[in-house]
Specification:
The protein has 631 residues and is of the alpha/beta class. Helix content is 40%, strand content 14%. It is built from 25 helices and 17 strands. It has a 7-stranded mixed beta sheet, with helices on both faces. The protein has a 5-stranded parallel beta sheet with strand order 1-2-3-5-4, with helices on both faces. Strands 12-14-13-16-17 form a 5-stranded mixed beta sheet, sandwiched between helices. α8 runs antiparallel to α9. The longest helix has 22 residues, at 19-40.
Amino acid sequence: MKHKLTDYDFPNELKNMSLEEMELLSYEIRDFLITNISKTGGHLASNLGVVELSLALHSYFDTPKDKIIWDVGHQSYVHKILTGRAKDFQDLRKLGGISGFPKRNESPHDVFDSGHSSNSISAAMGFAKARDLKGEDYQVISVIGDGALTGGPAFEGLNNLGVSRTKVIVVLNDNGMSIRPNTGAVSSHLNKLRVSKNYNRFKHGFGREVRDLPVMGKHIYNGVVKMRDILKYAIVDGIIFEELGFRYFGPIDGHDIKEIKEYLAMAKACEDPALIHVITQKGKGYRNAEMSPHSFHGIGPFDTISGNKIGGKSVPDNSRVFGEKLTEMAEHDERIVAVHAAMIDGTGLEVFGRTHPERIFDAGIAEAHAVTFAAGLALNGYRPFVAVYSTFLQRAYDQILMDVCLQNLPVVFAVDRAGIVGEDGETHHGNFDMSYFLSMPNLTVLAPADGNELKHMMDYAMTLDGPCAIRYPKGSSANICAGTTSFFPGSRVIREGKDLSLWGVGSMAAHCMEAAEILSSWGIDTKVVDPRFVKPIDEEALKKDLKRFPVLVTAEDNAVIGGMGEKIASFAQKNGYEGKVITLGWPDRFIEHGSKTDLYKKYGLDPGSIAQKVRDGFRGKENYDFEGKAI
């Protein structure tokens, strides 16, 4: 045994390991994960649960020739270790370091960029069809969790793959959870399958033993196939995967490397698509994560002994502010209900769930369903608050537009994690929501500067007869609205100035206040406006600033393209403005992973960079792009 994981020549060395050596390696990998993620943060519980599964996959298959596609991808840390990246884990999720998700530009063993759920089966089918069209010979394996199986795209993939008879191996990693325990009919069905080992033994034992009988074995087998089907339905209440066209294997122990490899061999021998159902324990091998897997799903730095997070928050984060405020509102208004997509903790709704259990609904990882479900509630007199991360709400674009906005229904979208989120990177940043919200008729779009303003906006949303989206960032915002007790439609001036006007949307208002202080030290007196209303924009306040100032600057935690800055620039042009409008936001590219502080600085959205760009624009000098190069 080597002294540390970085000493191994993975994946080559794995091929020659004995079962005993791989079992010892599993302990070493778990220690490595706990030690490293306690320093960098990341997805721990899900990766601890797939150690043996990952070892079995990589010791049996030959990547990158064989293609392993990880659904969501937050459980790919072990895969990364087994493909030679253990040495890079000290910079996991840091700017310039390796991603917490599979990335094709990082390794040939990462064949599909992941981050959102339920798409691996469709992607695997695409790989397999391309393989068959080219006459190539390799295996395609989709690894999907039971949580991801609640998403509609997974069913679309299963349905199409089963009927096509295309050879793909689907490994269903079933730990009974996504982040929280799963809900819905699929979860109930899997619960039945978990306890159906008698059926599994019958199915494989029956076929082997009866067909081996001399002379009449095959005839007996063929004659009683229908009897077997009757028995399997009696035991399991229906085998959905076999009815969809898959050879179903399982459920099996997902922590038994030998058993997993045996079933991988059986699945590989099938001509049709096969599904292997493995049972794993989220957080396996680390007691703190086993006892509280949801807490260790995605976690920041923590103490390995106690499991406690390092560096507690002094200010409640926006998710908690939202959840506590909604709970308070629901005490006084029985129409209020909450809808979330397998994110009760992440969206701050755990208190609401305990207080009003009959008025909170978990739609599973099915955001499109959640939105249309909320539309149905709204049409029947309720006032649903749909709490979803910005990046995942994108998956329900059509339902927001057609099922809610078209009918002008009073659904409130609590858009958590709006703007840049940091270490989870491209697939998790919420920097596109304003761009598509602004194009949707009937939708009011609000952006609070801090938690205090968020609470006022929630009250205001209840006065509207149509849909409303309130977008707020991950974590806590600077407390720049403290003491504000009233809320009125329109913008709010948070700093007066005589030289130029700086409109800081939502969380960027705090950056703009700091930038204004820097500009003041350079002799530029800057007015700072908190727009609050992204749509409809405060046209009267904007017209006054366009008449008064030669330069107007907008800063937003959203893509510049289609954002509020472009909307203001268009408004200024239509109103004959002859001054300069400078729009600051995220450029036309996917923003990589890294801390929020590092990303703001790199792309020129930290207070110092904003101040520099404003000064240069005010003095008529060159404008600069996000990397500091002259445009």
